[in-house]
């Protein structure tokens, strides 16, 4: 049983650019959630995808968008990057309806300069 | 709105000491889940425990134990005989049960407690 895989591990972008982060969910999981963790803070919920549709969103602007694919993998896209977008982005997969916890990936460390 | 408070920002102990990490939560839901996660320097969040709001039994797993008290909205975590490998940031989190077909809706995390266990 594979865990959650995120790519890339680290990324440096310039303010105003766009970025795409990728996540492969754990085998058997059909729901993917994305979290942003700023330095010294707890993770903040960005959004969740289930059946390839957004299934809930946190307090993030529309320039944060996502996709879920038929194989349950997911992408997080951020447009018009700002310095404050620098953070660790965590992906978590889970199986809907079971009440089980999430399995988190190791994250993508995004630095915006 | 949901809220999780971890009042202890940093705790430092000497190996073999017992240590308790506090967690207080707020929610208007009657059905919810509580979690503890460990985050080592590598960044991955490691799942430790999940409790549902209807199960107030305390739980013990090896050196770890959890005390869930609904009356005080607390879900505290105790490490007995701490070890250097326990050094990490520990997060308490709260999740509402999503009844519209999705999985557990979203996790609301506390700010975390940095635990340092010194040899």
Residue fraction in strands of chain A:
over 45%
Number of helices of chain A: 0
Order of helices and strands of chain B: EEEEEEEEEEEE
What is the mean pLDDT of chain B? 90
CA-atom Rg of chain B in angstroms: 14 Å
Shape of chain B: globular
Helix content of chain B: under 10%
- Alpha carbon gap, first and last residue of chain A: 37 Å
Q: Fraction of residues of chain A in helices? A: under 10%
- Strand elements of chain A, count: 11
Q: Low-confidence parts of chain A, pLDDT < 50 over ≥5 residues? A: none
Give the biggest sheet of chain A.
Answer: 7 strands, mixed
Rg of chain A is 13 Å
Describe the structure.
The complex is a heterodimer of chains A (113) and B (119). Chain A is mainly β and 113 residues long. Chain A has strands spanning 5-7, 10-13, 19-24, 31-37, 44-50, 53-57, 64-68, 74-78, 87-94, 103-104, 108-112. In chain A, a hairpin with an 8-residue loop joins strand 9 (87-94) and strand 10 (103-104). The mean pLDDT of chain A is 92. With 119 residues, chain B is mainly beta. Helix content of chain B is 0%, strand content 52%. Chain B contains no helices and 12 strands. In chain B, strands 2, 5, 6, 10, 11 and 12 form a 6-stranded mixed sheet that branches. The model of chain B has no long low-confidence stretch (mean pLDDT 90). The A-B interface holds A 30-31, 33, 35, 40-45, 48, 50, 55-56, 58, 88, 90, 92, 94-107, 109 and B 4, 33, 35, 37, 42-47, 50, 52, 91, 93, 97-98, 100-112.
């Amino acid at each position: 049983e594979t865990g959650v895989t995120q790519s890339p591990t680290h990324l440096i972008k310039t303010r105003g650019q766009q970025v795409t982060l990728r996540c492969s969910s754990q085998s058997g999981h059909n729901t993917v959630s994305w979290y942003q963790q700023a330095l010294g803070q707890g993770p903040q919920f960005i959004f969740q995808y289930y059946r390839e549709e957004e299934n809930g969103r946190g307090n993030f602007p529309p320039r944060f968008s996502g996709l879920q694919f038929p194989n349950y993998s997911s992408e997080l896209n951020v447009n018009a990057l700002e310095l404050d977008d620098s953070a660790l982005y965590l992906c978590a997969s889970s199986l809907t309806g079971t009440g089980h916890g999430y399995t988190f990936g190791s994250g993508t460390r995004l630095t915006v300069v | 709105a949901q809220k999780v408070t971890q009042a202890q920002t940093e705790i430092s102990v000497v190996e073999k000491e017992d240590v308790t990490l506090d967690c207080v939560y707020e929610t208007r839901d009657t059905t919810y889940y509580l979690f503890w996660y460990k985050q080592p320097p590598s960044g991955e969040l490691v799942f430790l425990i999940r409790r549902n709001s209807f199960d107030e039994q305390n739980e013990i797993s090896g050196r770890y134990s959890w005390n869930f008290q609904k009356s005080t909205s607390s879900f505290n975590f105790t490490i007995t005989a701490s070890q250097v490998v326990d050094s990490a940031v520990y997060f308490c989190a709260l999740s509402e049960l999503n009844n519209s077909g999705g999985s557990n809706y979203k996790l609301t995390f506390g700010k975390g407690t940095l635990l340092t266990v010194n040899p």
